[in-house]
Specification:
Rossmann fold, three-stranded antiparallel beta sheet, 9 helices, alpha/beta
């Protein structure tokens, strides 16, 4: 079995979730030699706070503060919307990052939001609307929630009833400011980092054609495909842990700059 050599896996959850979404996979990563950091992000769930103040900058600043107490190399792992956070964090701390992995994640060009990609594709792929039509809104449109039935049908259709029943109550409110995220990155920092994209072929939220469109827009990632729904770290934790460990092991002591990256839009 590959060994992660004490790398810290920074596990970044997506919208409406929290650090709990990594509970199933964390022991498998620790058994493979990772240290695991799986924080709750501001603007979500118990850390909703003032939704008017939620932002990508706030998420990254919060993670940077937590990482100040962590030594050694980092593997950033972003699930779903957490992919945009992982990208922006990688831009900020690129010198510490050995690679960035996306689990059905939002791997976005600089200056582009996920909604732009969906809008581009929804006529040809109506299913690209994903979870959007199911959302319930509050706080004047600043906060959304996902009904339990939609969580089961859109996020967790491939897990057992018991697993779904245990997870559904943990999903919480999400501020728009920390959901509709637009990363800004440069070729010199994020752009030179090795990347891995783990496809979820049954995904009904970030559907497969959208996942593959993001791979086209930000080329150069290794790609592994799994026959899971939107939350592969819950549905197939051992398989995902093996994939992440192999990817991390490949990067230790080796430089694999990404190639053929497009010029960023509106770099900051």
């Amino acid at each position: 079995m590959p060994d992660a050599h004490g790398i810290t896996a920074v596990l970044i959850h997506g919208a409406w979730a929290g650090g709990w979404v990594w509970d199933t996979i964390a022991p498998h990563l620790e058994a493979r030699g990772f240290r695991v950091l799986a924080p709750d992000l501001p603007g979500c769930g118990a850390r909703l706070g003032d939704p008017a103040k939620a932002s990508l900058t706030g998420c990254v600043d919060d993670l940077e503060q937590q990482l100040s107490a962590v030594s050694g190399p980092l593997l950033l792992v972003g699930h779903s919307g957490g992919g945009a956070v992982a990208t922006q964090l990688a831009e900020a701390v690129s010198e510490r990052v050995i690679g960035v992995a996306y689990l059905a994640g939002m791997m976005l060009p600089s200056g582009m939001g996920f909604g732009e990609i969906v809008a581009e594709m929804v006529d040809q792929h109506p299913e690209a609307a994903g979870i959007g039509p199911h959302l319930e809104w509050e706080a004047g449109g600043l906060v959304s929630r996902v009904p339990a039935t939609a969580i089961r049908e859109i996020f967790l259709q491939d897990v057992s009833d018991a697993t779904a029943a245990a997870a559904i109550p943990h999903f919480g409110p999400q501020a728009e400011g920390s959901r509709t995220l637009v990363p800004h990155w440069t070729r010199e920092r994020f752009g030179q980092l090795p990347r891995l994209y783990v496809e979820a072929r049954q995904d009904r939220s970030v559907v497969l054609p959208v996942q593959r469109r993001m791979q086209q827009l930000v080329p150069g990632a290794q790609v592994v495909s799994l026959d899971t729904a939107h939350v592969p770290q819950v549905a197939a934790p051992e398989a995902v842990a093996d994939i992440l460990t192999t990817f991390a092991e490949e990067q230790v002591g080796v430089t694999h700059p990404a190639t053929n990256l497009p010029k960023e839009k509106n770099p900051q």
